[in-house]
Amino acid sequence: MSEKRGVKRNARKGRRYYAEKWLEHQPRKNPKFHVKGKSRGKKVIEFPDSLTIESEQDVNVVVSLLGSIREAALKGHFKRIVLDHSGVRVMSPEVALMLVAEIQRCEAYCGTRTVITGTHPREHAVTELLSEIGFYEALSIKEPVLPKAYQSRTYVQVERRNKTLPKVVDSLLECFAKVFEFDDADRKRLHVALIECMDNVFEHAYDPKSHLPHLYKEWWLIGYADHQQSAIGFAFYDQGAGIPATIRKKKSERVLQKLVGWSDGQWIDRAVRRPISRHNSKRRGHGLDKLKRFLDSLGVEGSLRVIANKGDVEFSTSGGNAKVDTIEGGLNGSLIVWTLRGIKTEPVSERSSS
């Protein structure tokens, strides 16, 4: 199918914007990394029944699955890889985001030598989630037919870019407005913090000297507004060096020797509580700190969670110290999950009529 016909078909579905978005994006592969060898045979990767990041064990399961996909695609020399998630009962939006990112990375490097395909989940709730966030559309997979009756969240579909893009943040804030209306000052603060997250990926996350299969300066974003659960949130992900590894590169040998026993989680905790900007700028290096302080100022239940390398740190508005855990395998890159829960909501129709 030609690109033009593909856009027209999606336009009839009311999704022309997203079709054009994927066509115009050009990922930047690392020229130092190449997939070598002749491909042959088939590999089936069976997904576990639960894919969330609720516990440390859950995170380790997700990290292991991402590694299995990457290993099969970039080193396994398979002609066809089948991702079998027919048995998945539960999947969280941030895990779906990371799966999209990993598959897109593998497809960029494999080209036509390896076909990555998959099955549809039997669980309707998982199918609905993947459809609403744009999982199938992002991967050019035909969407399954959804049941007529289901409760829909309002989603910002998966965004994938390699530059700072304010209009993506605007779309996210419009999504939030379906459930929770920020005042102008708070909206601006959140906008600035998200722009800085993009800037940090663009400038620091990816090492140009690396020989790893990065998509240079690439980031992925998803957001949602759930009126039923009275919650809003977003997940922001990159496949770069990871926050702890990036911070250590900026430190002097004297500081590194003093903090030699620090875990990745401790480095993440420090990055949020004591932001660093090598440009001595109020805008650069303060994104996580701003997201946390913004949460604390709203007076509602919320959390900021950062998973990178072997560190997993969660900050909660309930008070106390951050929860710091260790991931066995380690995540390639950094995942930021920001959530507000239990907020007072009012349907948009009621707000507009009042």
Automatic annotation (TrEMBL):
It comes from the Bacteria. InterPro entries: HATPase_C_sf (IPR036890), STAS_dom (IPR002645), STAS_dom_sf (IPR036513). Residues 51-172 form the STAS domain. This is STAS domain-containing protein.
